[in-house]
Amino acid sequence: MNIYDISKQAGVSIATVSRVLNGSHNVKPATRKKVMDIIDQYGYTPNAFARGLGLDTMNSIGIICADSSDLYLAKAVYYIEGNLRKNGYNSVLMCSGYEHDSKENALSLLINQRVDAVIMVGSNYIEAEDENNRYIVNAATQTPIFLLNANLDCPNVFCTMCDDFRATQEAALLLLDSGITDILYLYNSRSYSGMQKLSGYRSAYDMREIPCNRELIQFFEGSREDIDGVRHFLCGLREQGLTFHAVLASEDMLAAGAVKYAKINNIAIPDELSVIGYNNSLLTVCSDPEISSVDNHLETLCSRLVKTCIGVLNGEEMPPKVIYSGELVRKATTNL
Amino acid sequence: MNIYDISKQAGVSIATVSRVLNGSHNVKPATRKKVMDIIDQYGYTPNAFARGLGLDTMNSIGIICADSSDLYLAKAVYYIEGNLRKNGYNSVLMCSGYEHDSKENALSLLINQRVDAVIMVGSNYIEAEDENNRYIVNAATQTPIFLLNANLDCPNVFCTMCDDFRATQEAALLLLDSGITDILYLYNSRSYSGMQKLSGYRSAYDMREIPCNRELIQFFEGSREDIDGVRHFLCGLREQGLTFHAVLASEDMLAAGAVKYAKINNIAIPDELSVIGYNNSLLTVCSDPEISSVDNHLETLCSRLVKTCIGVLNGEEMPPKVIYSGELVRKATTNL
Questions:
Q1: Smallest CA–CA distance from A102 into chain B, residue
Q2: A81 vs B93: CB contact, 8 Å cut-off?
Q3: I want to staple A88 with a disulfide (CB 3.0 to 4.6 A). Which of A2, A60, A136, B11 is the partner?
Q4: Residues A87 and A205 in one domain
Q5: How far apart are CA B8 and CA B13, in angstroms?
Q6: pTM to 2 decimals?
C-alpha cells in the first residue's frame, strides 16, 4: 500500500495525506484521524511514510515506444501508465524511434536506470532476424521484459498480443467470399505484427485456393503521417495498370489514404472499392465515408500486460504469452 | 556529459560504452580507446561512470499531461521527452486526467518523487479561479515548474506558450473581413488557453464594431474523441433555427465534426460554410475537404520549454515567459 492507496481509501487528496504524515497543523482533526486509522489498519508506521512519503515503495517501470505521438502507440502508453500508477508504479517513458541502434540504445539506458521492469510498446521491437533481437534477450537477463503486440521466445520475456494473423485472415476471407478477389494489401512496417498480418492475408488466398497476384502486395515507404503520400502512391499503381477492388491496410492511416485516392479518381466506395483499416482509431471516424477497421482491443491488451507485469514483480507464476483476438468493426467502406 | 553523450561522440552504442566501463573483454581495442579518450577529454573518471554507469547524473524530470493519448498532448510529450533525453534527463510520465483533484494528486505524486523539475503539458492545468491554481503555486516552492500553453504569475514557474488570443483573433478577423459575420465559435475547454481563444474571437467583433450574437458561442460537452457527437450537436443548433456561415473551432476534432455536419446537411464547404480548426493535426488532412487550421508551432514551443528548463536547472537566469505566435494554415475549408 502506498500514499496513492491511502488517499483513495480515505477519500482525501494525496496532498492531505502528505500533510498528515508531515505533522502539518493545517488538517482537520477528523481527516487526520481517518488517514491515521487507514495507515494503522494496514500496519504501516507513519514514520516510514514520512521519510520520502513512503514513495520509496513506489518504484519505476520503464516504458519504451518508438514514437509516443503515433495515435496507436500514444493510446497504449496512456493505458499502461494509468494501470501502472493504480498499482503504485511510476512510468519512466523513453521514445526510441524506429531504427535498430536507437532502439538498442533506449533499452540500455532504461536497464541502467534500475527500473523494476521494462515494457516495450509496439511490435516494431521484434525484427525478422534473430540477430537483431539479441539486445532484448541480453536485457532480459537483468530485468523482466514485457512486450505488447510482439512475440519472442526467451526466458524472462512476457508477451501480450492480439492475433493479428487471424484477424487479417478473417478480414481477407470476408472480402474473398463477397466475390472480391483482387485485394490490394497495403502495409508500412516489417515488424513482427506487420509480418503476421501479411501472412494472414496470404493464407486467406491459400484457404480459398485462389492465386494471389504478387503485385497486389504493396509496401508504402513514406512517413506514418503522410496520408496524401498514400493517395499519390495508389494513384501511381493505378496509372501502371494495376486493378484492385479492395484495399486491406495494416494501419488506419493507410486506409484513410485509400479513401482519398478513391475520391480523387471518382471511384465509388464501397461499390467499386472496399477499404479496411487496422486499429479502429479516430481516423476511421474522421474520414468520409467512415472506415471499416479491425479493432484489436488495445485497452484490454494493456490492462492484461500490466497485470502480468505486476504478477511477475510479486513473484507469481505468470504465463509467458497471452493472446487475444481482433474483430472487424464494420463501417461505411465495406459491404460485408 | 552522460553515457548518452559519450556514445554519440564516440559513434558507438550505449551498450558498447557500458561494456567498456564495465571492463568487459568483448570490445575491440580501438573502440575501447575511442571511448576512453572521450571520457578522459571531459575529465570524467571511468570509475565514477562504472558505478551505475554514470546515470546518477541522468536525473529525472516529471511530465504531467491530462491524457497522453490526446493527439495534441501526445505530440507535445513526444517532443519534450526527446529534448530532455538529448540533454541527459529521463522523463517520468504521469497522466492526470482533467479533474481538479486528479491533477492535484498527480502533481503531489511527482513532487514527492524527487524529480528535478515538473513540466505540465497543456493549458488545462490553469483554471479560471486562482484558488484552483494554488496547488501549483505551492508545488513551485519545492520544485521549478514549467507550463506549456498556460500562464501563471508565480516565482519558480516558467511559461512557454503560443499567443492563442491573437491567433484566434486573426482567424476571426479574416472571416469577418471576407463578409461572414455569423461565425459560430465552438469550444470544449474552459482552460486558460480555451479562454484566451474565446476572448480573441470576441475581440475581433469588437475591433470591427460588429455586434456578436451570444448564441453563436457554443460549448460542446461531449468527449474529446466524439466527432459524431459534434455533428449531432451542430444539427441540433440548426434545427433550433440558428444560422451561421462559418465555424471557428478551438480544436481540430470539433472542426472535423463541423465538416461532417455540413456534408450530412448538403451544405457546401467553403461556399456556404467556412471551417477553421486549431492545432493543424493529422485530422485536418484525414478530413475531406482538408481543414484550414491554426498551427501553433508545437515542436518549437516544446524545444524552447526544455531549453528554459535546462537553463534553470543549470542555474542560469531564464525569462519566466516566452510567447510565440500562431499562424493560419489555409486548406480547403476556407476561401480566405
A1: B13
A2: yes
A3: A2
A4: no
A5: 8
A6: 0.80
Peptide bond into A270 cis (omega under 30): yes
Q: Which residues make Cβ contacts (< 8 Å) with residue A40, sequence separation at least 6?
A: none
Burial A4-29 (b: 16+ CB within 10 A, else e): bbbbebbebbbbbbbbbbeeeeebee
Q: Dihedral sign for Cα B87, A106, B94, A286, please.
A: positive
Instruction: Report helix, strand or coil for A138.
Output: helix
CATH number at residue B144: 3.40.50.2300
Same domain, B185 and B280: yes
Give Cα separations from B246 to A4, A9, B69, B180 (angstroms).
Answer: 47, 49, 29, 7
Which residue segment(s) compose the domain that A308 sits in?
A: 60-161+298-324
Comparing CB atoms, the residue among A14, A79, A263 nearest residue B109 is A14
**Secondary structure of residue B200 in the 3-state scheme:** helix
CA angle B258, B264, B268 (to 5 degrees): 70
ipTM associated with this complex:
0.77
Contacts of B91 in chain A (CB under 8 A): 92-94
Q: If pLDDT is split at 50, 70 and 90, which confidence band does A43 have? A: low
Number of domains making up chain B: 3
Task: Please state, rounded to an integer, the average pLDDT across all residues of chain B.
Answer: 90
Burial of B227 (0-12, 13-18, 19+ CB in 10 A): buried
Is A260 within 8 Å of chain B by CB? yes
Is residue A333 domain-resident? no
Asked if residue A254 and residue A181 are part of one domain, the reply reads: yes
Q: How far apart are CA B36 and CA B30, in angstroms?
A: 10
Proportion of chain B above pLDDT 70, given as a percent: 92
- Classify the C-alpha dihedral B74-B78-B84-B88 as positive or negative: positive
- Taking only the tens place, the pLDDT of each residue in B84-109 is 999 989 899 999 999 999 999 899 98
pLDDT at A54 over 80: no
CA distance B53 to B48: 8
* Contact assignment for A52 to B112 by CB distance below 8 Å: yes
Q: What is the H or E stretch that residue B195 is in? A: helix B192-207
Q: Chain A within 8 Å of B335 (Cβ-Cβ)? A: no
